[in-house]
Design the sequence.
């Protein structure tokens, strides 16, 4: 892979402000007195609310969210390995309320009357809307793996994939792993939230065990898939950092010159990736005996971190917004539900073409949706959208970073990825790799402020 050209870099950078140029589009009439209700106060919901108030302050915007603070999933695996605390990932809604005039109802939605455009909460509050937005996140399919239950996920087998106190349980479990113990990480099948995340977590755990002084720890990744976002960079980094032998089926990701640079180790290091073609699909888990059965065999472990298959949030099912795929179908230009009019679904729960399920993607969708809502409420045509996504990840060593950067456009009603350079080049310098790690942490701060401040 070649380095990113100045022309392509400018394309990527320019995509982040693509929506800004659309704000000057003249409106046919004012959207005054319009009411937008947003269900979910995560990245998608918060960004929609903030930018809609920036674009059209006259619109009344209300977020219905049971939690009074938000915990960010992005970067939360670092709680497990002690780089950050739960306090570090906890975000206030005060700026949205006080600076931007977003109204909050801290309650749970129990029903939506689509005919009369009214939301009902558990506290029996009735809230009318002109447009309803849902950004409710994800839920988990525990039935997909024998032996895995929601109760176990709160105790012995926490997944820690939605930034709850399960992260603290995983931290305690990691600290209790005996010297040179074994940790199993089970990524979910696609699609799922934060595509590089399970592999970053595996790397962070391996690095933590090494830093503790373990000589021969083992982190086994049992994976139903044969690849993942950033695999090109991640596997290469593991090869350099952790004596990781890249599985034969995965070597096709590299050209001949790159393959010649990869190392092969007689005594592999702490990370083992058993991909789908090698039997990585998990079939059963036994929490009492701490074993995991995969197609490749039965594995014993001191700590098991299985992330179950994901689907749309439960409320999306309850409100009849989900199809047979387990996700919410939408018009990918406006994110309006194809099941109910004047209802929009963004973020992890929606089907958004080639866009991944990530915080960055939800933020990008939310900014576009804010523009579209402003136009629709004023009786104007929606604009042609441009989206972007960047996912950062660490190889395990916190100074070894990587990213994937994508731009998306609409073609024939579907969101498609623009074919451009996505990753750091294979021959990236140590300085570039360290900068990518620095960018990750700086991005998390700036990104959080963009969504919530």
Sequence:
């Amino acid at each position: 892979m070649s380095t990113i050209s100045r022309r392509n870099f400018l394309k990527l950078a320019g995509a982040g402000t693509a929506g800004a140029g659309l704000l000057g589009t003249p409106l046919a009439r004012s959207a005054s007195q319009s009411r937008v209700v947003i269900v979910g106060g995560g990245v998608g919901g918060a960004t929609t609310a903030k930018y809609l108030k920036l674009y059209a302050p006259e619109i009344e915007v209300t977020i219905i969210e049971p939690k009074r603070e938000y915990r960010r999933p992005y970067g939360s695996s670092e709680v497990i390995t002690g780089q950050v605390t739960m306090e570090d990932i906890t975000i206030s809604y005060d700026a949205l309320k006080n600076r931007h005039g977003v109204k909050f109802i801290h309650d749970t939605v129990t029903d939506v009357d689509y005919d009369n455009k009214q939301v009902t909460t558990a506290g029996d509050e009735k809230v009318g809307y002109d447009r309803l937005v849902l950004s409710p996140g994800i839920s988990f399919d525990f039935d997909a793996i024998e032996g895995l239950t929601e109760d176990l996920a709160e105790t012995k087998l926490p997944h820690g994939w939605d930034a709850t106190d399960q992260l603290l349980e995983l931290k305690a479990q990691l600290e209790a792993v005996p010297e040179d113990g074994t940790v199993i990480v089970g990524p979910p099948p696609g699609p799922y939230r934060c595509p590089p995340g399970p592999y970053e977590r595996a790397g962070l755990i391996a690095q933590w065990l090494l830093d503790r002084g373990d000589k021969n720890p083992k982190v086994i990744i049992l994976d139903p898939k044969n690849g993942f976002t950033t695999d090109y960079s991640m596997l290469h980094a593991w090869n350099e950092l952790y004596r990781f032998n890249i599985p034969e089926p995965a070597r096709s990701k590299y050209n001949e010159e790159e393959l010649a640079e990869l190392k092969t180790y007689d005594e592999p290091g702490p990370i083992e990736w058993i991909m789908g073609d090698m039997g990585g699909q998990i079939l059963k888990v036994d929490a009492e005996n701490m074993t995991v059965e995969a197609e490749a065999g039965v594995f014993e472990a001191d700590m098991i971190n299985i992330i179950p298959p994901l689907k749309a949030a439960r409320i999306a099912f309850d409100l009849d917004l989900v199809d047979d795929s387990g996700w919410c179908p939408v018009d990918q230009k406006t994110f309006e539900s194809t099941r109910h009019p004047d209802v929009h679904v963004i973020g992890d729960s929606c089907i958004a073409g080639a866009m991944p399920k990530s915080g960055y993607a939800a933020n990008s969708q939310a900014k576009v949706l804010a523009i579209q809502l402003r136009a629709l409420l004023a009786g104007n045509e929606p604009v042609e959208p441009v989206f972007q996504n960047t996912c950062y990840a660490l190889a395990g060593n916190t100074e070894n970073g990587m990213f994937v950067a994508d731009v998306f456009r609409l073609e024939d009603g579907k969101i498609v990825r623009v074919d451009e350079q996505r990753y750091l080049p294979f021959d990236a310098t140590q300085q570039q790799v360290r900068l990518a790690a620095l960018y990750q942490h700086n991005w998390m701060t700036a990104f959080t402020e963009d969504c919530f401040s």
Q: What stands out?
A: The radius of gyration is 22 Å. The longest strand covers residues 401-411. Residues 430-452 form the longest helix (23 residues). The chain has a mean pLDDT of 93.
